[in-house]
Amino acid sequence: MSNNHQSMPFLEHLEELRWRLVKSLISVIIGAIITFFFIDSLIDFLIKPTQSLKYPMDLQVLKVQGMFMIKWGISLVGGIVLAVPVLTFQIWQFISPGLYMNERKYVAPLIIFTYLSFLIGLTFAYKVIIPFSLDFFTSVGMEGIQNNFSINYYFNFITWLMLGSGLIFELPVLVFILSIFGLLTPAFMSHYRRHAIVVILIISAFITPPDPVSLVLMSIPLMLLYEISIGVSWLVSRRKSD
C-alpha cells in the first residue's frame, strides 16, 4: 500500500471524501441542467412506449405542480446518468491511494466499462422490460374501465425499472472491482453458480411485474451477465498473475 495513504490522518480522509462528494454533486447538477434543455424531447421519448400498446393507456396530470415536478425529477435522473463517469472516477480516486500501483491502470477501462454497462441496462429496460410491463398491467383491466394513469406514477414506474436495470447490469463491473482486490475468483463464482441463479430469480421478481414473462425476460440477461462476470474475473486474475 501507499505510504501516503497509510500516514494520512482520519480527518484528512474525511476532508478528501467531502470534496469528492462535492465534485460528484456538482457533476450531477451540471448534468441535470444539460438535461433540462432537452426535457420536452426526453419526455416524448419516455412516453413513446405507451403509444404501441395492445390496450391503449392515457396519461393524466392530476396535480397543479405535476409537470413541473416531473420535468425537474427527470432532469435530476438525467443528471445522474450523465454524471456516472465522473461519479465512477471520484470513487476510484478516493480508493486508489490504497491500491498497488499496477492496479491503478484499471481506472480508464473501469470508467468506460461502468458507463457502457449502465447504458446497456437502461436500453434493455426501455426496449424490453417497460413494453412488456405496460402490456401486462394494461391487459388486466376490465371492460368499461379506462386505462387512465397518473403521469407522475408512470414516470416513477419507468424510472425505477430503468435505473434498477442499469444498476443490475453493473454486475460485471462489481465483479471486476472485487476481482482486482482479490475478493472474487473465477473458481469461487463457478462453484456458487447455482446459488447465484436463485439470487438472480429473487432479484428479478423484485424489479419486474408479477408475471412469469417479465421474470424470465429479466432472469435470462442476468444469468448471461453472471457468466460474463466469471469471464471478467478470469481475465483480471490472469492479468494479475502475468
Structure description:
This protein has helices at residues 3-7, 10-36, 39-47, 66-95, 107-139, 151-168, 171-180, 186-191, 193-207, 212-241; strands spanning 58-60, 148-150. Helix 2 runs antiparallel to helix 4, helix 4 (66-95) packs antiparallel against helix 5 and helix 5 (107-139) runs antiparallel to helix 7 (171-180). It is an all-alpha fold. Strands 1-2 form a two-stranded parallel sheet. The chain starts with a helix and ends with a helix.
Alpha-beta content class: mainly alpha
**Beta-strand residue fraction:** under 5%
Strand count, sense and barrel status of the largest sheet are: 2 strands, parallel
Tally the beta strands.
Answer: 2
Number of helices: 10
Could you give the order of the helices and strands? HHHEHHEHHHHH
Please, what is the average pLDDT? 80
Cα(first) to Cα(last) distance is: 20 Å
Estimate the global geometry from the Cα principal axes.
flat
Order of strands, widest sheet: 1-2
Calculate Rg over CA atoms.
21 Å
Q: Helix share of residues?
A: over 70%
Number of domains: 2
List low-pLDDT spans.
1-6
